[in-house]
Structures are given as C-alpha cells and as structure tokens.
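so my prof wants the structure for this chain in the tokens format not the other one, which i didnt know existed until like an hour ago. anyway here's the sequence
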Amino acid sequence: MLAGAICPQAFAEETSKFTSAEFLTWERGSQEFYIDASVGMAGLIITRNDATKGKCLDGWYLSDQDEVIDHILEVMEANPTFHPRGVLAAIIEKKCGSMEFDAN
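here's what i got, hopefully its the right format
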C-alpha cells in the first residue's frame, strides 16, 4: 500500500531510530536537500493520485522555499522525537489534505 509508505504514522513513531533532533544537527544545505528530495517525491506520488493536491503542494512548497523550510525546521524542533519524514508528511497533510490513496 503506497499510502503506508508516506503517512505520518509510518514515520512519526517516537521509537524511530532517526529523529528530527538528529536531523536538526545537520548543516542547513544538507537539511534543504533532504527536505527538497522528500517533498519532491511526495509531490510526484500525490500528483499521480490527485492533481489538485499536487498543485496545492507545489504552490505551497515553491511559494517561498526559505520560509517554508524555516517552518518545517520549526515544526521538527517542536517534535524532536519524530522521524523527519513523518513531520514532513504531517505538514503536507495539514496544508493539502490526506495522502491516503487507493492502491488500485
């Protein structure tokens, strides 16, 4: 099931070995690359399943990337025990709606 691969519950477990706290120790350029790659892949998957949500994601993420990335990092700082992809997925769902899609 594709939705399970990117849903917040799959990655936001507090028992995750890789946490937002660890991610926040990375250099800014590495953080931006990780976020950009993760949002880009989420965007590809979302767009293939729901074009409207894909446009929402692109519009939000590309509107002001520095501001958006700052916001993402602030949310990670507030949720240090969660996996960074779980935080990203939760933010994307809050901005553009559920990422659960029928696998058929």
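also thought this was worth mentioning. Residues 1-15 have pLDDT under 50 and may be disordered.
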